[in-house]
Amino acid sequence: MKGIQQTNLEAYYADNIKDAETPLNISMITGGHSNLTYLVEDAKGTKTVLRRPPTGAVLATAHDMSREHRILTGLGGSPVPVPRTLALCQDEAVNDAPFYIMDYVEGTVLTTASQTNKIVPPDKREALGMHTIEVLANLHNLEPSDVGLGDLGRREAYLARQLKRWQGQWEKSKTRELSHMEEAHKLLEAKRPEQVGAGIVHGDFRMGNFLTNGDKGKIAAVLDWELCTLGDPLADVGYLMNDWNGPGDTRPSASGTGESAVSCGGFPSREALLERYEALTGRDTSAVDYYRAFQYWRLAAIVEGVLSRYMKGVMGDDGDVDRFRRQVDGLAESAVDLASSNSL
After folding, report:
1. Which of 78, 202, 280, 319 could be cross-linked to 310 through a Cys-Cys bond (beta carbons 3.0 to 4.6 Å apart)?
2. Parallel, antiparallel, or unpaired: how do β-strands 199-201 and 47-52 relate?
């Protein structure tokens, strides 16, 4: 199987995972250009999960297994639900790349409204929405040093650093001139709010990165900590608000489309989530439209990078170039619309 050295991994499990019995049955959960995730079931039926970088990855800093493992380990036992880490292997001779192993957590990743309709009963959606914002508040209320993550990144000037980084990425990868991207960047620079405090920022906090127990209205585990750093917690709030597209919302979600997992209805409003977040953290969310604009602009730069790679043929020929272009256009327009708000 791609990314798996079966014999070596069976020997590693036998030596490092308590009570594991070989042979192992290994299947891929998610693949692609992000980190690869595998379900590992031993001879007794005990399930664990293995994460490793994509095959052929050249940017080690973008696929740092020890960093992901460190974050999950630090958050273990905190009010933020994450899988328990079991082992970290940095010896590339074992499986051609570093990897880590964590507990298997039961749950469903929700990405579409139709999926949510099947998994989450209408009378559990209010609770699931409130648990979502409570988990985010719990993350932001943590003092990074208390969970061993005090040196995960720079705490100050988060927005300034992000704006510089993604403007540079846009300039390197853009496939055409797009006035909305330039206008959004100017507005975001001019209206940049002062950062108040700092905390752990997940970087991709949305329903598509949670394991959800729909029948309980709970998040069982928060996944995909690749983009986690220290900085302005309100960036996560803005990102979640962009993904919280209820029925009738016309702006893109965090996936770049119009639909999200909550588009089926029955979930708390954005206003209710923000009110709950303020009550739990004491943070002022009145400038949330700025952070929403920033996240739309940032995502547009990311998607343009994907578009550029497809157009250069380095990601195969299965990319819908027109779809990516429309996504970037919609994201950039939404960024300008929100950044131009009179409330900012």
Report:
1. 319
2. unpaired
Q: Which fold has domain 113-339?
A: Aminoglycoside 3'-phosphotransferase; Chain: A, domain 2 (3.90.1200)
String of DSSP letters for 123-163: GGHHHHHHHHHHHHHHHHHS-GGGGT-TTSS--S-HHHHHH
Write the pLDDT tens digit of every residue in 25-79. 999 997 555 789 999 999 999 999 999 988 765 444 456 899 999 999 999 999 9
Whole-angstrom distance, CA of residue 152 vs CA of residue 146: 12
The span from the CA of 261 to the CA of 332, in Å, is 22
* Residue 274 near residue 282 (C-beta atoms within 8 A): no
pTM for this prediction: 0.93
Q: Could you tell me the fold of the domain covering 6-103? A: Phosphorylase Kinase; domain 1 (3.30.200)
- Domain ranges in the chain? 6-103, 113-339
269: which 2 tokens?
């409003």
Predicted confidence at residue 259, as pLDDT, reads 84
CA distance 214 to 124: 7
Task: Supply the DSSP symbol for 216.
Answer: T
